[in-house]
Structure formats: structure tokens, C-alpha cells
Amino acid sequence: MELVLFIDQSDEEVVDPDAAANCMHSLAGGFDRLDGQQRVEIAELLRVVASEQRDASSRRRVNDLVHELGLSA
């Protein structure tokens, strides 16, 4: 999950935006192939990670990833 957050939250000087987008799309595609229970478990993990973020903006961003990666019902 830390790698996902790094790719998602890095600016373009650190991670090429096209490479980051391709990585996130690939990841979302992988999640699409999981069964429902596995997707629920990953969504729950992301929500735990969100709750551990220090600021509201970071918490919101991690929670947004649940939806962007197709993990929400």
C-alpha cells in the first residue's frame, strides 16, 4: 500500500505522470480480477491506512483511492 501511495502522491519531478497513471491503471485492472471478498479486504486495508494518515487531506486522498481503484461497492 505504501508503494501505491508513493506513486499516487508523488509530484512529477519524482514520478513521471504518465508512468504513474499507467501503474495505477494496471493496478486497478489487477483488482478487477480479484473476487469480491478479496476486493473488500483490500478496501478495508486502504481504509485502515487512511485512518493512520496525519492530516485530513491525506486521509481523504487514501479513501478516494478505494473508489478510483474500483474497490468500492
Structure description:
By secondary structure, the protein is mainly alpha-helical. 73% of the residues lie in helices and 0% in strands. The chain has helices at 2-9, 17-32, 36-51, 56-68.
Salient structural properties:
mainly alpha, flat, 73% helix, single chain, 73 residues, 0% strand
Chart the SSEs and their pairings.
Blueprint: H1 2-9, H2 17-32, H3 36-51, H4 56-68
Helix pairs in contact: 3-4
Q: Which structural class do the helices and strands define?
A: mainly alpha
- The total of helices stands at 4
Rg over CA atoms, rounded to whole Å, is: 12 Å
Low-confidence stretches: none
Beta-strand residue percentage: under 5%
From the spread of the alpha carbons, the general shape counts as flat
What is the overall pLDDT average? 89
Sheet with the most strands? none
How widely separated are the two ends?
A: 20 Å
User: How many β-strand stretches?
Assistant: 0
**SSE pattern, N- to C-terminal:** HHHH
Helix proportion range: over 70%
